[in-house]
Amino acid sequence: MAVNSNKRLGDTERCVDEVIRRVGKKITLGLPLGLGKPIRFVNALYQRAKDDPEIDLRIFTALSLVAPSGSSSLEKRFMGPIAERLYDGIPDLQYALDVNNNRLPPNVQVSEFFFKAGSALNNRSQQRHYISTNYTHAARDLMDLGVNVVAQMVAPGELHGAPGLVSMSCNPDLTLDLVPMLRELEAEGSPVAIVGEINRQLPWFGRDAAIAEDQFDMIFEHETSEYPMFSAPQMAISPEDHLIGFYASTLLKDGGTLQLGIGSLGAALVHSAILRHKNNDAWKAVFDYLKVAEYFPLAVKEGGVGPFEEGLYGCSEMMVDGFLYLLQEGILRREVYDHADLQTLINNGEIESTISLSTLDVLRREGLIDSPMRARDVTWLTRFGILRNEVEFKGGRLRVGDHTLDGDLDDTESRDAIATLALGDRLTGGVAMHGGFYLGPRQFYQLLRELSDEDRNRICMTSVNFINHLYDHRLGNQRLKAAQRVHSRFINTAMMYTLSGAAVSDGLEDGRVISGVGGQYNFVSMAHELPGARSIIALRSTRKAKGEAVSNIIFNYGHCTIPRHLRDVVITEYGIADLRGQPDEQVYLRLIRIADSRFQQDLLSQAQKVGKVDAAFRLPESWLNNTPDAIAKLFSEAGGKEWFPAFPFGRDFTDQELVLGKALKKLKSETASRRGKLSTLLQAFRAKDEQGRYTELLLRMGLNQPSGLREKLDQRLVIHGLQLTENPSDTGSSKP
């Protein structure tokens, strides 16, 4: 297919003109979440709306990404060089900056269904315009809200042997559904515009993500203004996170399915899964040290302790970078096929990946092919590599090059000829990873660009409706998905968890939204619908609030994301709580068992007060060692930094930035309350770097030679923060 260059425009203003010509000045714009926003086109359209108050522009999207800048003077000093290093060359998303600064013009409204966690907590405009919807319902809701323009960043096909195609790559999640819906709307007489923006730095993916360029009404292309991908840097994995990840890795079943979210808890799980696979003796030593089999029998019952011989299949709305590391290490290698009967036979061990005549016999027995084979059989068999690609059906016979064969599977001579000339070697066309969108560190994007054709073809970026639930009649049937998603483990995170079994993941009880439900509800619900599947909610047992430790396992809360009747598995750094099908008393006690010991008695007392736990119950001695000190000791004895490093997959921060980041985080914690602020300021006034130990760090912050009261105070605060967090064994080296 030839490239339709007539639709490619080299000027964003011409694109905006064409959109207005097609749909008028009432524009309801749907944008992909996260990475796939076409920034140059969107900025031009937004600027036009700012310049022309007659334009009514409404933007519906999620995860509008902007480079972090920091709020306080110290944070700005710290973040400035990082932002320059990581985001240089990436144009700012102008509407998102104006949203953050409450500067949207009156003729523009932005509604999101998922925020970057905490980013809009105190933004009243965004809280008012937030749309609460499951990810799978977002396309439907966008259409109901009157979307008439969709715009998307795409990769060009001509660079990848696919002229006439473009790849939605990072975001087919909603666009695959929206495009046909908009075309139906157009056929009914409503004007629409579908806009693409070429970016050659976007990794190419084929399969479902590659669509015909003529699906777009116009495509903006200006190679010299193309920009790098927005990155989400690797974050440090704490000892607590590593323990949560380790416990989660015990629940993975070889030959199963994995869904995973972004963040350090997901990275910790990936690291422990790789440790289990590559250094199983070390992994088992930790397993035994933690007494997992004794304390948490679910791991023995439904998980596994050996390497991943069959491998895992990934099916996750977000393809985090961890999936790529699992692919590289040979763990993400269980391939699934787009045919329910074939997949079921593979699951049952009746068909293996290597092809033989018995493969044909099984397929014939199940009524999937006939004997003698017909044209439709040959087409189907070549699709999956059971017959070689060059096999054709002509004149009632199989043709392979100059040879013609009888397709009668009951004839010995024909069988021998088929085996010699027509059979393939291995099943082909399998998918090891279905993803809806991706976002990650710069290294991740580079690895995606460098994938071999074979590995790239094992990844299918597709519609979120295919991935996130079972009941999707347009994109795939329930039976196929159930056959593919055997032994699923849906691993997600929460902020808090109530003793009754409800997860609090996206908002506060006063109604303010932290992030959004995304796909969490769908995955939890699917875990209860699929045989052998489990939903796993991971959370740290405590958090800091106003400088004080607060339990994340709580008695009750005025908001929930996942209702208690969908309770399943919960993991903290103190272990695994198996809640599915349990009576309330056991649910309460199992959650108290994995809570921080500083809060266990209070939680128990509240449960006993309302009659949910027997009044005679007393906390067992074995439960009472759930403390940070015990975690530090356990982490050290279980392998510590040797087996569980803070950055197992590389990092984007320098050594100095890690030291400074820890100090600034400590200062923020210490100044969370009014009393804390006063105490910290008094201590900071007395803080000095008399031996010059922090010279290089102060230089990094631009505070080595402060001038004026503000800079001098900032310098003292940094010194105080470094003193609070420095290694006690440090004897005075100027290097962090």
What does this structure look like?
The protein has 736 residues and is α/β, with parallel strands linked by helices. The strands form 5 sheets. Strands 1, 2, 3, 4, 5, 6, 7, 8 and 9 form a 9-stranded mixed sheet that branches. It is globular.
SS field, number of helical segments = 30
Largest sheet: 9 strands, mixed
Assembly classification? single chain
- The share of residues in helices is 25-40%
Beta-strand fraction estimate: 5-15%
For this entry, give a set of tags:
single chain, 736 residues, alpha/beta, nine-stranded mixed beta sheet, 30 helices, globular
Provide a brief overview of the structure.
The protein is an alpha/beta fold. The chain contains 30 helices and 25 strands.
Protein topology:
Blueprint: E1 8-9, H1 12-23, E2 26-30, H2 39-51, E3 56-61, H3 73-87, H4 94-100, E4 108-112, H5 124-129, H6 138-144, E5 149-156, E6 165-167, H7 172-187, E7 193-198, E8 210-212, E9 218-220, H8 239-249, E10 257-260, H9 264-278, H10 280-289, H11 292-295, H12 298-302, E11 313-318, H13 321-328, H14 340-347, H15 357-365, H16 375-383, E12 392-394, E13 397-400, E14 403-405, H17 412-421, E15 433-437, H18 442-449, H19 453-457, E16 459-461, H20 464-468, H21 478-484, E17 488-493, E18 496-498, E19 503-504, H22 520-529, E20 534-538, E21 542-545, E22 548-551, E23 553-554, E24 569-572, E25 575-578, H23 584-593, H24 597-609, H25 628-637, H26 640-643, H27 655-670, H28 674-686, H29 695-700, H30 708-725
Parallel strand pairs: 1-9, 2-3, 2-5, 3-4, 5-7, 7-9, 10-11, 10-17, 11-15, 15-16, 17-20, 18-23, 20-24
Antiparallel strand pairs: 5-6, 6-8, 12-13, 13-14, 18-19, 21-22, 24-25
Helix pairs in contact: 1-2, 6-7, 8-9, 9-10, 9-13, 14-21, 23-24, 27-30, 28-30
